[in-house]
Amino acid sequence: MKTVHFISYKVAASLPLDKIAAFLKTNMKFTWDEYIVVGGEQLDTILKYHSEDKAVYLFKYGCISFVNFTDKEIYSFLKYLESITSRINYNLMPRYHESHNVTIDENLKCSLFENKSVEVDYDKNIDHILSIVLARSTQMLFFETQVNNLLDSAEKFVILLQKGRLLTFTKKSYAIMAKILRFEFDSLSCIRIFEHPALGKHSIKLKEIYDILAEYYEFGGRFNVMQSKIKDLRKIVGMYSSLSYSETETRLLLFEIFLLSLFSLAHII
């Protein structure tokens, strides 16, 4: 019996895979479902010792999945990566991470979950699937936190807008609106990471394993909830734009009345 340990961390807003691949002399295709895999002699060079049964998966959207790594090895790898790109944000790691263990028996059968009866034949492609699933779940956790924080902030100033306190809250409301629009842009640019991965070169069984794990991590339900919250944010943006436009229109009308009154007064004088 042996256990394969997987853990994925959010370490940056995004990772420059082209730059990292060039530095590591790793070939890759730059498509949405691609990533860099570091293992074998490359990983031996980074860790400075033989790293059998270990691997690292780096994803463009800023998540990294580690296979059979200790905390010390993770830190060593990130410091090495930091020498290639300065984008590593260690503050993200304690908040955004996912871990998973797979136990393999003497017959090379493995349980996908602890205390579950789902067993499959183990091979290295299982590492491939689990690394994708954990990275996507970690990124989804990041998006979920972002959208919840934005909703909390937006709801506060909407209450003030409804009370007619737009003038005293304009600067802060603009900042919040900018964050909402930026989040929507980022979520749209990364939305395809939640699509079914391209597993054309792998067996149908691996696609089934991905679906089982995606259901276990509730990808469908979490994605739908997040989409609903993003729609709420869009409504808030619309409400703000409508109120802001109405106030601007009122100001212009009052200014025109003021100018007309000055013109009439000057004519009388």
Protein model, in words:
With 269 residues, the chain is an alpha+beta fold. It folds into 2 domains: 2-129, no CATH class; 137-268. Helix content is 57%, strand content 14%. It contains 7 helices and 7 strands, in the order E-H-E-H-E-E-H-E-E-E-H-H-H-H. It has helices at residues 17-24, 40-47, 71-84, 124-162, 170-189, 204-216, 219-268, and strands spanning 2-10, 35-39, 55-59, 63-67, 97-104, 109-111, 119-121. The chain has a 7-stranded antiparallel sheet with strand order 2-3-4-1-5-6-7, sandwiched between helices. Strand 6 (109-111) and strand 7 form a beta hairpin. The longest helix is centred in the C-terminal third of the chain and has 50 residues, at 219-268. The model is unreliable at 258-267 (pLDDT under 50).
How large is the radius of gyration?
26 Å
Mean pLDDT: 79
Uncertain segments are: 258-267
Q: Oligomerization state of this entry? A: single chain
Please give the number of β-strands: 7
Strand content: 5-15%
- Overall geometry comes to globular
Could you give the order of strands across the largest sheet? 2-3-4-1-5-6-7
Q: Write the element-wise H/E pattern from the N-terminal end onward.
A: EHEHEEHEEEHHHH
Largest sheet: 7 strands, antiparallel
* SS summary, helix count: 7
* Terminus-to-terminus distance: 101 Å
Number of domains: 2
Helix and strand content put the structural class at alpha+beta
Helix content range of the residues, please?
Answer: 55-70%
